[in-house]
């Protein structure tokens, strides 16, 4: 199986422009993807294989608790989702389905095949923490007493458009560490 069938085994899609390809191999196979988005519209387009497509795509977005927030099951083979989401982590499930009954449609028995997906997620303004480590002095003869200073900084830019339409920047210094060590020759490692 090319992608996991559950949220726990989901393939993670990173960034605000996502893309992936997969294969639905049996009627019980589903492909699950995990993505993180900022607050706003999420657009995801699904396309079956360019030639000989048999995959009738149904796609759904659910939250981390398993609540289905959006489902698309168009009459044709391709599918497209456009959904407003709050900032958070979500799961996207791709399934091969049938339509109507066997007299007027078809079952999901042969709704298998390759697909690709592309999408645009809302910008997630949370930035990863930035760590800095400084040493002073950085060279000398042994034994050498070195002072180390470390800090971790996390920055976040938030849009407060609901009230004022202005942009606010918040900076938070999480940790500041200082220590001194004497390096003896037996502790040195050369690479």
Q: Can you summarize this structure?
A:
This protein is mostly beta strands and 191 residues long. Residues 154-176 and 183-191 have low confidence and may be disordered.
How would you describe the overall organization of this protein?
Residues 154-176 and 183-191 have low confidence and may be disordered. This protein starts with 10 loop residues before the first strand and ends in an 8-residue tail after the last strand. The protein is 0% helix and 55% strand. The protein has no helices and twelve strands. The chain has strands spanning 11-13, 17-24, 30-37, 40-48, 57-63, 68-72, 79-85, 88-96, 113-120, 130-136, 144-160, 166-183. The chain is elongated. The protein has a five-stranded mixed β-sheet with strand order 1-3-8-5-6, with no helix packed on it. Strands 2-9-4-7 form a four-stranded antiparallel β-sheet, with no helix packed on it. With 191 residues, the chain is mainly beta.
